[in-house]
Amino acid sequence: MTMSNKGALARETIVAFLGDIFRRRGGEEYLGEPVTMAEHMLQGAHLAELQGEDEIIVVAALLHDIGHFTSEFGMFSMEDTHDKHHEEAGAEVLDAFFPSLVIDCVRLHVAAKRYICATDPTYFSELSAASIHSLKLQGGPMNPDEIASFEKNPNVKEIVRVRRFDDAGKVAGLMTPNFDHYAPMIQRTVDKHFGTDPDSATM
Ligand code: FE
User: What b/e readout covers 126-156, taking b as 16+ CB neighbours within 10 angstroms?
Assistant: First the structure.
C-alpha cells in the first residue's frame, strides 16, 4: 500500500509516509552523481551520526532532498507557471511536522552551498562536477550583501554543517543503515516539535 495522499498526513503517519517514499522512489538517479537519491540522503545522515551530531541534524541531513519527490505531496498544480525549487518544496511539506531548525536546513541547503563557496576558499575544489554545474544555475557564490543576510539566520552553523553532510554523501558503494534505522529519530524529532514528553513518545 502506498500513502501518497498528503491530506492523510499527521504526526502519527508522517514517518511511515517518508519511509514509503524512500522505499518506492529512493532508487531513482541523483542526477550526475554515482549514488541514488536514497543512498545520497542516507549517507548524509550516516556521516552526521558518525560525527556525533545531535539527532535533529541527522534527521535534517536525511530529509534535506525530500523535495525532489514533490509529486508525492500533491503539490503539482496545472496553474504552476514554473518549477518549484526542490529545497522550497521540501521545506513546505515538512513544515507542519518538524522544528524550524530542520526546516531551515532543508530550505537553505542550496543557499548554503552558495554561502560556503563565497566564504571558504577550499570548498569549491571539493564540490562534485554536478554540484558545480548546478551552482551556476543557482546564482553562483553569494555576494557580500547575501552573505550578511544569510548570517542573520540563528541556525546558520547547523545549516552549513548539514550542507557539508549533503556534499559528503555522494560516495559510490558507501554502505549505510537503511531508513528504518532513522525512523525512531524522525519520530522523536516530530514528537518534540509537538511538545510530547519524549518518554511517552511511542513508535
Ligand atoms: Fe543533496
Answer: ebeeebeeebeebeebbeeeeeeebeebebe
